[in-house]
């Protein structure tokens, strides 16, 4: 049991005019679709989250969360809230920590775009992976919980969860490299030599896939809600990039924090081991392998290069939306400036992997 950290409660902001919802229609939909719902209904918007705008709904029957697609022109296959809802609805009955799914709406007449409603996980967000205001024991507890939760996801029987067709067959990395190359090209705003080298190198060096699981796709500390006082994940959020695939994609992405300089988000490079309380990368590998029955992991440099290439594609998409004026967060502009840095870091890891 640890002390509560009130500053880590998820923060909400006033809703800008462009992000407002039709309360009359939404209330009617909630009455028809959300078990136990009772109005009146009010709402605020969660801070952060550039991809699918997310709202906190306040009602007489309790608090809920609504995730919707952004308004405006979108890249194909991006912002698939129906897929997010499906994976949450599949995992919830297995006991895996996700918010309770209440309903999905694909009728644009309700609020103007697709959305879904889930339960509000009343816990804490940890935005900074170095956890400066926590004790070493608290840090250890949180990191072990993240590692164990990821192992639990990868150990989940996705067929029993009704997710057997949630991803395509074949090599996950091959598909993903192809997909993010295509997404990058669609969002391209200028020529970047490092990205061109990666687009040539990655498809030629795809590692073999030995396991298949549900892959979250964005597994990092600020995409989960922790119990208010315990080192325990009560809800994994942001399933937009999830699919069936190689669990090493998630695990290597989680480990990216250990090779990323502390930037106020997930980076913990130079802040682990010893009396910091944050386990080392080697500690996490050992713990994850023990929980998933692996005897080790392959050379991680290729996986780090791939993860940074994918992030380059995602951030390039944000940059393109800024150019078109549809990005949903003030953070978007700052993120877009990181495209060059991500591409160069990806190529550095590719060189370490033998490029």
Structure, explained:
This protein is α+β, with helices and mostly antiparallel strands. It has 2 domains: 9-119, Phosphorylase Kinase, domain 1 (2-Layer Sandwich), CATH 3.30.200.20; 136-352, Aminoglycoside phosphotransferase (APH), C-terminal lobe (Aminoglycoside 3'-phosphotransferase, Chain: A, domain 2), CATH 3.90.1200. It is built from 11 helices and 10 strands. Strands 1-2-3-4-6-5 form a 6-stranded antiparallel beta sheet. It has a two-stranded antiparallel ribbon with strand order 7-10. The protein has a two-stranded antiparallel ribbon with strand order 8-9. Helix 6 (193-204) crosses helix 11 and helix 9 (301-324) packs antiparallel against helix 11. It is globular. The mean pLDDT is 91.
For the structure shown, list the relevant keywords:
alpha+beta; two-stranded antiparallel ribbon; globular; single chain; Aminoglycoside 3'-phosphotransferase, Chain: A, domain 2; 355 residues; 6-stranded antiparallel beta sheet; Phosphorylase Kinase, domain 1; 12% strand; 2 domains
CATH topology category name of the largest domain = Aminoglycoside 3'-phosphotransferase, Chain: A, domain 2
**Mean pLDDT over all positions:** 91
Give the CATH architecture of the largest domain. Alpha-Beta Complex
The side-by-side strand order for the widest beta sheet comes to 1-2-3-4-6-5
Approximate strand percentage: 5-15%
Query: What is the top-level CATH class of the largest domain?
Result: Alpha Beta
| Uncertain residue ranges | none
Secondary structure: number of strands: 10
Order of helices and strands: EHEEEHEHEHHHEEEEHHHHH
Share of residues in helices: 25-40%
């Amino acid at each position: 049991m640890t002390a509560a950290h009130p500053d880590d409660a998820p923060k909400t902001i006033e809703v800008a005019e462009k992000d407002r919802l039709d309360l009359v229609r939404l209330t009617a939909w909630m009455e028809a679709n959300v078990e136990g719902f009772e109005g009146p209904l009010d709402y605020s918007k969660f801070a952060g989250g550039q991809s699918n705008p997310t709202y906190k709904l306040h009602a007489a029957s309790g608090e809920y969360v609504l995730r919707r697609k952004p308004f405006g022109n979108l890249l194909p296959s991006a912002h698939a809230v129906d897929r997010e809802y499906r994976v949450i609805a599949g995992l919830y009955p297995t006991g895996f920590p996700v918010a309770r799914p209440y309903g999905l709406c694909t009728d644009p007449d309700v609020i103007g775009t697709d959305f879904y409603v889930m339960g509000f996980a009343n816990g804490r967000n940890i935005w900074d992976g170095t956890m400066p205001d926590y004790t070493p024991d608290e840090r250890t507890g949180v990191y072990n919980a993240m590692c164990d939760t990821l192992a639990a996801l990868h150990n989940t029987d996705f067929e029993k969860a009704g997710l057997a067709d949630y991803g395509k067959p074949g090599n996950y990395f091959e598909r993903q490299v192809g997909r993010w190359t295509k997404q990058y090209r669609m969002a391209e705003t200028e020529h970047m030599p490092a990205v061109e080298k990666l687009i040539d190198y990655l498809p030629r060096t795809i590692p073999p896939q030995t396991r298949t699981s549900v892959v979250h796709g964005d597994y990092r500390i600020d995409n989960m809600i922790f119990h208010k006082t315990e080192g325990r994940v009560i809800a994994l959020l942001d399933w937009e990039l999830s699919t069936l695939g190689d669990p090493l994609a998630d695990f290597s992405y989680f480990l990216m924090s250990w090779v990323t300089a502390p930037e106020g988000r997930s980076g913990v490079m130079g802040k682990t081991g010893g009396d910091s309380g944050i386990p080392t990368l080697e500690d996490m590998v050992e713990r994850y392998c023990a929980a998933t029955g692996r005897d080790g992991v392959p050379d991680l440099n290729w996986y780090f290069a791939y993860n940074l290439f994918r992030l380059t594609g995602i951030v390039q998409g944000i940059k393109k939306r800024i150019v078109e004026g549809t990005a949903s967060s003030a953070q978007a502009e700052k993120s877009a400036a990181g495209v060059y840095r991500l591409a160069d870091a990806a190529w550095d890891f590719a060189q370490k992997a033998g490029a």
